[in-house]
Specification:
By secondary structure, the protein is an alpha/beta fold. It folds into two domains: 5-100 and 293-313, NAD(P)-binding Rossmann-like Domain (Rossmann fold, 3-Layer(aba) Sandwich); 102-284, NAD(P)-binding Rossmann-like Domain (Rossmann fold), CATH 3.40.50. The protein contains twelve helices and twelve strands. The chain has helices at residues 14-23, 37-44, 60-65, 84-89, 102-117, 120-128, 157-170, 184-190, 197-203, 223-228, 246-254, 293-313, and strands at 5-8, 25-27, 49-52, 71-74, 93-95, 149-153, 173-177, 192-194, 206-209, 234-237, 260-263, 282-284. The strands form two sheets. A seven-stranded parallel sheet has the order 8-7-6-9-10-11-12, sandwiched between helices. Helix 8 (184-190) links the parallel strand 7 (173-177) and strand 8. Helix 1 (14-23) packs parallel to helix 12 and helix 5 (102-117) crosses helix 7 (157-170). The structure holds 2-keto-D-gluconic acid (8YV). 2-keto-D-gluconic acid binds at residues 53-54, 75-78, 101, 290.
């Protein structure tokens, strides 16, 4: 029997490609060329499955142009690059990679919080520029982390991981806002208290964003929200670009209406709002919160296993939608 054909849209671990090749006729992109939407459609012609990352958008136009497509397995927990309702309507299964990256991403969220609060990159730039000539009492004095109030907007698995680190490791008071409150047992485990978004913004010493991107969360943090935050507060975004209005944030940082920010994601990344590069009180990282080799390998394997599961058993391990007739 002919093997199903799949497209692996970005470069991936060779051992994952080898595993896929046991089950599929694979078209790979180990040169890691970034395709335009038109090129993606061209590459998807005749492919029954796709291994995607956050950089490939699967929407109604792609689906209409690729009627033979049956499944898209995203190597990411976030899936704002997928139009899931359109995929469901077209009978295309969507899957993501939850759980395997939770703790690694929470580690990074906490690292970014610490680096931001304690001004680590700003002070390193100063040192590297040869500006460090003497000690002084307030040089790079930052904000306290232990014992402070940790605010979390979006309390899914990663948000809970950050809450546990703050509450249990650093004695922080944890407050959160989410579409719905957690059950009592999970709140107790995270030592977290549900508050309104307004109270979260006004009370948090360190606010971490971990909510999914959607039309509803677009610019959830803009000028009005930043104005509610304490002038001593820090803001950390490890969720998605577009949740923060980067222009408004750069202005708030310049005017010190908040103290500092740590950003792993950006509106329109990998391009950055130019003002973010000129304000000193911001820590910038290139979307690496899940980037440990072990976790990226686990994510790639899970995306591959979703494709294999679908074509061999008719079901993915971590699907995002249910199809009327999920027949490969
Ligand atoms: C990925 C992420 O590295 O999982 C996610 O949602 O943002 C990151 O872990 C990125 O999306 C690549 O697909």
């Amino acid at each position: 029997m002919n093997k199903p054909s799949i497209l692996v849209a970005r470069a991936v671990f060779p051992q994952v490609l080898d595993k896929l090749a046991q089950h599929f006729t694979v078209t790979a992109n180990q040169a890691d060329v970034l395709w335009t939407p038109a090129q993606l459609i061209e590459k998807l012609q005749g492919q029954q499955g796709a291994f995607t990352t956050g950089s490939e958008r699967i929407d109604a136009a792609v689906l209409a142009a690729c009627p033979q497509l049956k499944i898209c397995a995203n190597m990411a927990v976030g899936f704002n690059n997928f139009d899931v309702p359109a995929m469901t309507a077209a009978g295309v299964l969507a899957s993501n990679t939850p759980d395997v990256l939770t703790e690694t991403t929470a580690d990074f969220g906490f690292a970014l919080l610490m680096a931001t609060a304690r001004r680590m990159t700003e002070s390193e730039h100063y040192l590297r520029a040869g500006q460090w000539t003497k000690w002084s009492y307030d040089m790079f004095a930052g904000a306290e982390v232990h014992g402070s109030t940790l605010g979390i907007l979006g309390m899914g698995r990663i948000g809970q991981g950050i809450a546990r680190r703050g509450a249990h490791g650093f004695g922080m008071q944890v407050i959160y806002h989410n579409r719905s409150a957690l059950d009592a047992a999970t709140e107790a485990d995270c030592k977290a208290r549900y508050v309104s978004k307004e109270e979260l913004l006004k009370t948090a010493d360190h606010l971490v964003l971990v909510l999914p991107y959607s039309a509803q969360s677009h610019h959830a943090i803009g000028a009005a929200e930043l104005a509610l935050m304490k002038p001593t507060a820090t803001l950390v975004n490890i969720a998605r670009g577009g949740i923060v209005d980067d222009a408004a944030l750069a202005q708030a940082l310049r005017q010190k209406t908040i103290a500092a920010a740590g950003l792993d994601v950006f509106e329109g990344e990998p391009k950055l709002h130019p003002d973010l590069l000129t304000v000193p009180n911001v820590v910038l990282t290139p979307h690496i919160a899940s980037a440990t080799l072990a976790t990226r390998l686990a994510m790639a394997n899970l995306a591959a296993d979703n494709l294999i599961g679908y074509f061999t058993q008719g079901q993915a391990l971590t699907p995002l939608n249910t199809l009327a007739a999920a027949t490969p």
